[in-house]
Amino acid sequence: MSAERKAPDAPEAPAAEETPEDVTVRDAPDAEGAPRRATRRFPLFTRDTARPEGGGRAAPGDAPAPARQWPILAVLLTVGLGLLLTALDVFRVGLLVIGAALVAGAVLRWVVPDVGMLAVRSRFTDIVTYGGLGLVIVLLALMMQPEPLLRFPWLQDMLHFTVDS
User: Fold this and answer.
1) CB atoms within 10 A of CB 153
2) Global pTM?
């Protein structure tokens, strides 16, 4: 067995190859037994999912867990309050609180550099998803019957055009 192991489909290595002394092992070797690199640079070929930007802790590591994850906790507690209001038959207010919590999550994802577990994908995807869902929930809560606070006349015409014959 040789000291140098290559993956079967691995591309050719650059001319200046690293010697085993240059590579530091993190915890354990990879599946083929080769040592893993301890570098923070992205590899040439991605083999795993990268952490989303902003996915670091929102507070130092020695802080208690709730303080490290305050952005997601703020959004979840506000959504919980909205669900409680909805369960207590205050539908419109509860849905407005839920929608506002998602819009606030989008704003937090945009403004705060490290939001912890609120970061799911890329910053752009999170902002569009949280903001879009929050805006849709707020609009539906404002259009909810009876006595909607927001009316779209063309929506009634479209409904009659598609349903009535």
Assistant:
1) 7
2) 0.61
